[in-house]
Amino acid sequence: MDLANGFRKLSLQNKMVTVVSLIALIIALPISIRWLYYRFTHAITNDAFVESDIVNVSPLVAGHLEKLYVDESDRVKKGELLATIEPSDYQAVVNLRRSEMEAAERKRAATEITLERVREEVEHTTRIAEDGIREAQETLRKAKAMGERVERDYERLKNLYERRVIAKSQFDAIKAEHEGMQASINSAQILVNVRSTELKRAITNRRQVDELGKNVSALKAQAESAQHGLEVAELNLTHTRMESPIDGVIAKKFIYEGDFVSPGFPVFSVYDVDNVFVRAHLEETKMKGVKLGQEVDIEVDAYSRTFKGKVTKIGEATGAKFSLIPRDTTTGEFTKVVQRIPIEISVEDPEELLKPGYSVTVGIKLD
Question: Measured on CA atoms in the order 348, 351, 357, 361, is the torsion positive or negative?
């Protein structure tokens, strides 16, 4: 009787196991078919990460950080002030360059005034000298013309006197007139020489005008150079204010207040929240059927949810071509390794949930 009951219990248990197995099979079969179908219609890889355009914000001038206005995870706008560098040294340079520029401008202005004054004086002196030499030459010409007449009268009366035709008093009168005329001619010649000397001096003074003009040009160049120096100093002063180059989020802060910073060394890293994408590295054996614009399922480990995306770029070379130590198969030691192609995938609606560096699994729908 006990044996019969045992067989009945065993038979009941076997039936229950069979029923449970059938139920599990019925449930698992569509899931398995769906799983297999997805594998056949999608290229899948978990070598994928969320990325974004990350900008390292570094100063353009060196100095001690005076103040930080943002911290990690803060949202910033393009042009927003992130930090300031101690500006006193750069302000002092600005003041120095401004003083140099103002001094150069004053010297240039004073030299230009001197140039104008000397030019007017030279022009005035030249005009007087030219007028004077013309008057002196005219006086000399008249004196010579009268001298020729007196010379003729003198020679004629001299002959008459020697022949005792005229009185001595008459000859003495013409002789005195002749000597006076010679003195007038000599005086007029001296005046012409004096006026010529004055004209030469005025022409020499023109060279002084030319030299002053060259000095003015040199001072203008000096003033312009000082102006450029001031502009550079003012630009360096503005560079003590570090501003965000993009709209984004502060991902990393490398420096703290009071630290010394130098150009080229980052203070912040800012990533663009509006340009979040996924970069996947897909095996070359799975590339068949992968094309631009294909739909992609993006499973994010951090949220256990799936986002939608599209293939936007397909790399033109594998990552191995850019390794620090490239492969060398010429020695005959060769092991074939499946290469991976970089794929860039846009995310349709990241909802500001995806952060650069998140691990994801992507499924690219094959064509």
Answer: negative
CB-CB contact of 69 with 257 (8 Å): no
Distance CA 244, CA 250 (A): 10
Q: What is the pTM of this model?
A: 0.61
Q: Could you give phi then psi for residue 289, rounded to 5 degrees?
A: 95, 0
34 assigned to some structural domain: no
Instruction: Note whether residue 303 is domain-resident.
Output: yes
> Hey, what are 238's tokens?
């503005």
Whether residue 185 sits in one domain with residue 98: yes
- Where does the chain have alpha helices with state H? 2-41, 88-162, 168-238
SS3 281: strand
pLDDT digits 0-9 by tens, 70-88 = 998 899 999 999 999 999 9
- Determine the angle formed by the axes of helices 88-162 and 168-238, rounding to 10 degrees: 170
- Which residue, 354, 330, 136, is CA-closest to 251? 354
Helix (H, G, I), strand (E, B) or coil at 298: strand
- Residue 263 identity: P
Neighbours of 250 (CB within 10 A): 19
Instruction: Check: CB of residue 278 under 8 Å from CB of residue 344.
Output: yes
